[in-house]
Amino acid sequence: MEVVLWRLLPLLSLLASFLFFLYLHHPSKQVSHNECSLLFFNHFWIISKRIVTPQGLISGAVEVKGGNIISIVMEEEWHRNSKRGHVIDYGEAVVMPGLIDVHVHLDDPGRAEWEGFPSGTKAAAAGGITTLIDMPLNSDPSTVSPDTLKLKIAAAEKRIYVDVGFWGGLVPENAFNASALEALLSAGVLGLKSFMCPSGINDFPMTNTSHIKEGLSVLAKYRRPLLVHAEIQEDSDSNLQVENGRDEARSYLTYLKSRPPLWEEAAIRELLTVAKDTRIGGLAEGAHLHIVHLSDASSSLDLIKKAKSSGDSITVETCPHYLAFSAEEIQDGDTRFKCAPPIRDATNKEKLWEALMEGHIDMLSSDHSPTIPELKLLNDGNFLRAWGGISSLQFVLPVTWSYGRKYGVTLEQLALWWSERPAKLAGQDSKGAIAIGNHADIFVWQPDVEFDLNADHPIHLKHPSISAYLGKRLSGKVLATFVRGNLVYEEGKHAPAACGTPILAT
Ligand SMILES: [Zn+2]
Question: Residues in domain Amidohydrolase-related (predicted)?
Fold first, then answer.
């Protein structure tokens, strides 16, 4: 017996090393090496009958390697090609560039109980969004200096599931101090944001056109944009209602009247007096003005159109809630719908769609601006005291698509409004399109699959109950989201580790 065992020893050791080899190379072992992705391949092909590229919709394959798109082939070529690696076949599902949301309040650090980087970026990934640009206010402190930007970056470290860039704040404190602004821009903010009315946050005061003019002249050197909340408080009925009692304060009409279109129009009119500096040969050539969340589709929009035709470097965004809802359908006391500027009437909504379809509105953003449910005053329903902000991040794609279908929205338009133009605004040349050399920021979805957005639906936002979209039936289901080649989300599941990259301008 001993002799037999002795002879078997070399064989046993061979078997042991073979098993050890298998253990090392088993796929599950490799997964633990890359917790950033639900996929353990670094080089793979995504194939689909419907891929949205800048050249239009194609049937073919996208090759991803090392986080980038390295080739794109049409279906015929794919069939001729013999070389293959790992292939993910999405069939008829739509493959699109990841959405880029340039207007998000993640409230981190300081008010992470309102949203926070982890839940906000998980919600984004589940909604096909691969890049967020975080607003400088609602976190504490506001992002208005290199030090406060550092706090943002530290808070984002290993806590973001998609890429996140940051806007800095243009506030009276830094507006007339060119070196302070330069320091903030050199520290990596992608541009600046300012308010022409009170922001609702004490450490983020409003600016006037003199501040904005100064800001633009510094931004010109960096060729970065200024985003402006364009409303100016004019005399209105706004202060009557509080005295008029609780019923008035619960009425949506009261709130609507308190922020009339005139507020937007007055702000834009003033803004355009300095916007001309951005023209070629102007004092601030190289800077760019971007008007956030336009709600008034009449006089305000006409002013913007005129500025564009005069050569001002100016763009404008609107948000899904202005396109999905109208004042007529908002119930009194339902403060989930409170935002500023307010959601206006149905005629205005139709005009916004028209302007978007005709190209006068350049892009869309969520303006996801959550808070804790207590501050939304959902039980009390006081529109005048409730926190203003719509919670929507995870649903902007199905919302735009569901409400846009009757206007004939195409997949290419979705990519333009939600990827290509936002990438340009944020100065992200390697994002915003399925193109060779770009980051492999891609998502896959089924436009025709409907779902009820109710308590059974997996919602990753921190406070689903405050979302205005709850209870709606929407169309468009996200299957998978890739950020720089990492499969960060698939069918309800997120990658174990948060491997998004903080984006800093250089
Ligand atoms: Zn906002």
Answer: 94-488
SS3 140: coil
Specify whether the CB–CB gap between 300 and 314 falls below 8 A: no
Alpha carbon of 476 to ligand 1 centroid (Å): 25
- The average confidence (pLDDT) of the chain is 93
| Distance between Cα 293 and ligand 1 center (Å) | 8
Cis (ω within 30 of 0) for the bond into 97?
A: no
Instruction: Specify the long-range contacts of residues 300-309, CB closer than 8 Å, at least 24 apart.
Output: 300/230, 300/261, 300/264, 300/265, 300/268, 301/351, 301/355, 301/360, 301/361, 303/265, 303/268, 303/269, 303/272, 304/268, 304/360, 305/360, 306/272, 307/272, 307/275, 307/276, 308/360
Do 84 and 44 form a contact (C-beta atoms < 8 A)? no
**364 Cα distance to chain centroid:** 9
DSSP character string of 212-259:
HHHHHHHHHHHT-EEEEE-----S-GGGHHHHH-HHHHH-HHHHHHHS
Q: What is the pLDDT of residues 230-267, one digit of tens each?
A: 999 987 555 444 555 667 999 999 999 999 999 999 99
- Closest Cα partner for 163 from 134, 198, 193, 205? 134
Distance from C-alpha of 246 to C-alpha of 380, rounded to nearest angstrom = 9
With a threshold of 0.70, does the pTM exceed it?
A: yes
- 38 C-alpha to ligand 1 centroid (Å): 32
Q: Provide the 10 A C-beta neighbour count for residue 207.
A: 27
Report the chain's C-alpha Rg in angstroms.
25
d(CA 225, CA 421): 13
